[in-house]
Amino acid sequence: MRLNRWAARLRGRAAPTAGSGPVNAKVMTPVTLGAVVLGYALDGPGTAAISGVLAFLTLPAVAVTNAVVQYLKADTLQETSGPPSAAVAVPSAPSALAPVSDRVVSREALTFWDALTPVERRDFIARARRHLYRAEDVLCREGGVAGEVVVILSGWTRVWVWEGPEQRIIAFRGAGELVGERAALMIRDRSATVTADGDVQALRIDAHDFGAFLDAHPRVRGVLEQQVYRRQIEKPGFQAVRGNCSILITDITRFSSPVRTDADRGYVLGAMYDLMGEAFTASGLDFGRLYQEDRGDGALVVVPPTTPTDKVVDPMLAHLAASLRRHNRRAAEATRLQLRAALHVGPVQRGPKGVAGGSIITTRRMVDAPAVKRRVAETGADLAFVTSDFVYDTVIRPAPGLIDPSRYSRVRVRVKEASLSAWLMLEGGASRLRAV
Questions:
Q1: What is this structure's pTM?
Q2: Is the separation of the CB atoms in 318 and 396 below 8 Å?
């Protein structure tokens, strides 16, 4: 097959120069006749015949040599694919698309694109077409026909499914990751919807062309199979993402109080989710699209790196505090809702039964800090909001929108073996804050 391609390229190279080289009927005929005449004039018929034959045999040899020299000059004896065209040039910014060596990359590479060698990448680019998805554009829709595969070059997408009337986030996919691999497995329907979380640069390739790409590069099929296996064992919820997520943990004060019945606890927990949903909407965030875990007496909410942390604070907190005040003015003791909330920023990883990571542990310790619980008990505050030093310095201190940094006071969080600094703000009740 390689020899056939070489021959075809040789014919293609020779075609435009036909008639211009030494192997040409218009050249060979007069040269051969000239040699015969010259031989006859010099030494008779015998020499004429020998001269003609030598001239006839010498010229093709010279022609072949000339063709090989020209071919080598054109650098076509070595098969290369050349650089990608401008229409599908890969941007250099995302680290996931950084060049790798020509060695075989491990199947356990972080993303599909990371696992490809430069040769494989060039072939993929040659078969694909580039596309820009705007925020909220749908890359593929749950139940739709799986007709193409997409590689994300930059930006973030979220993968989600319908669970009854609500949307449930399954994962976030970023630069270098493959979307729609079911199309390559001849599975004709999409298992989830993939939506752009902002501007997303991507390479789109038809399922048939992607199959041809896999046939041309059998090693990549093993990479794909490994990825499919990892995604099959993904629990609906959250996949580890690169970047720092905003982590919000809430806890309902005195949730297990004997003054509450199970019905009261169910009502209070439902009210918490309703009020949080309204508050997040006020910040322009769809609460239903964020990763959530119910913690029995509270919730864990993970906001992806693509969403600025200040949106989780402003104006969300002001709306949440106002909603809690309204709720508690009308509530009996058994349905009163006092909420402690902690916000931190850091990496999040998938655990065996959900999400995990040191950042989540730190956030949990802040919301459970004895100093925070004591201040809520002393003031009867509707909302106790505690943040890490990082969030305070980068979000609270600049005082955007409805945030008032003077309402925050430093507290020491001591839980088990941990001791760290944090910042506390109280809303409602006798919440005039004094130094802790």
A1: 0.49
A2: no
